[in-house]
Amino acid sequence: MGLLDGKNALIFGVANKNSIAWGIVQKLHEEGANIALSYAGEALEKRVRPLAEAVDCTFVEQCDVTNDDELDAVFDKYAEEIGTIDILVHSVAYAPKEDLDGRMVDVSRDGFLLALNVSAYSLIAMIKRAEPLMPESGGSIMSMTYHASRKVMVRYNAMAVAKAALETVTQYLAADLGPKNIRVNAISAGPIKTLAAAGIPGFRKMLKMSEEAAPMRRLVTQEEVGKTAVWLASDWSSAVTGEVIYVDGGYHVLGMTLTEEQRDEMM
């Protein structure tokens, strides 16, 4: 018996085997959830379909989350082929590389708006379509955020604002959907080596610093994020909504980040 036996999960954002969304998919599947997937573009299809087969997933649809017609098509097809949505996972984010690097004052208007559209508004757009498909007993919706939403992280500019918006949207959606017992939360994971993260300038240094500075002195894994997603998707978190759940080895609690060498020098 799994925690999610008989539950239907629709996950947006699997890109390859290293993506956080894939870690979530694996854990949801292990706990008995039926999996449906949507990926961002045709170039990713050859990577996503073999992964879908590994978790007995037959619903695999491409979707540009900024395109209302494509969102309609995915949710209409889902309703026809599967029916109800118990779990919705939003693991989608994008900002142009040039609007991540440099100074915030140099972020372009178009890049700023694109980051907000893809990374934050898309959650609203998905939920608008998912809400009618959720059962009377309720459901669980979750998205992926990052600590740069609250504290300045070098080279994260436009995306940091998008993640801050995503977290605020999460709170408002939780308030809207709470009366229907639909819970909306966000997971704030520590840095993980993914396809999306590879586009962040200096990401390798970010990984090394996080590993050295986090209270647990290590990086987090896809599997650990997946376990948290299972908890949020299950009845074990039945009264949890509107929250940002940190899975970052405690990094977010620090007021000053120091390496072991720097700590020794201060002693």
Structure explained in plain terms:
With 267 residues, this protein is an alpha/beta fold. It has one domain (8-250): Rossmann fold (3-Layer(aba) Sandwich). Helices cover 40% and strands 14% of the residues. It has helices at 20-30, 45-54, 68-81, 109-130, 157-177, 203-213, 222-233, 260-266, and strands spanning 8-12, 34-39, 59-62, 87-90, 139-145, 182-189, 244-247. Strands 3-2-1-4-5-6-7 form a seven-stranded parallel β-sheet, with helices on both faces. Strand 2, helix 2 and strand 3 (59-62) form a beta-alpha-beta unit. The model has no long low-confidence stretch (mean pLDDT 91).
SSE diagram, text form:
Layout: E1 8-12, H1 20-30, E2 34-39, H2 45-54, E3 59-62, H3 68-81, E4 87-90, H4 109-130, E5 139-145, H5 157-177, E6 182-189, H6 203-213, H7 222-233, E7 244-247, H8 260-266
Parallel strand pairs: 1-2, 1-4, 2-3, 4-5, 5-6, 6-7
Which CATH class applies here? Alpha Beta
Helix content: 40-55%
For the record, what is the CATH homologous superfamily label?
NAD(P)-binding Rossmann-like Domain
User: Approximately what portion of the residues adopt beta-strand conformation?
Assistant: 5-15%
CATH topology: Rossmann fold
